[in-house]
Design goal:
This protein has 133 residues and is α+β, with helices and mostly antiparallel strands. Helix content is 34%, strand content 38%. It has three helices and seven strands.
């Protein structure tokens, strides 16, 4: 599995504010081109449709304090991740497996770079929305 991590420092932001941003799919989809749609409420599992390297992937983010997610639709063999929310700091970790083992040495670095750009853009969008709430 390949792993990508992104972090942002957001002075003065609380974990509750970040959770509210993550729960507001409409605002997040408007702020971040990579997020197509977020459906569900903070009290239930949320379904996220995102664009990863031009491909649409759907994951389910579990309700509760963990804020972790797992792919349910898409072309990847496996995708999972988790948000880390701390006072003044926001993080996102994504693990993925393309499922093309013979080409992994060639494709994994390319996809890792793409996933890093995705994670960085998503973290920045969430951080910016958190600052304005």
């Amino acid at each position: 599995m390949c792993v990508v991590r992104s972090r942002a420092t957001v002075p003065g932001i609380t974990a509750e504010r970040v959770r509210a941003v993550l729960a507001d799919g409409t605002a997040l989809a408007e702020a971040c081109d990579q997020v197509v749609e977020v459906s569900g409420t903070p009290q239930e599992d949320q379904r996220w449709r995102v664009l990863l390297n031009g491909s649409e992937v759907t994951w389910v983010q579990r309700a509760g304090t963990a804020l972790d997610f797992t792919q349910v639709e898409g072309d990847l063999a496996e995708l999972r991740g988790a948000w880390a929310v701390e006072p003044d700091r926001l993080g996102l970790m994504i693990e993925f497996h393309l499922g093309i083992d013979g080409l992994a040495p060639l494709l994994d670095p390319i996809w890792t770079q793409s996933f890093q750009a995705f994670a960085d853009a998503l973290v920045v969008s969430v951080a910016q929305l958190g600052e304005t709430r």
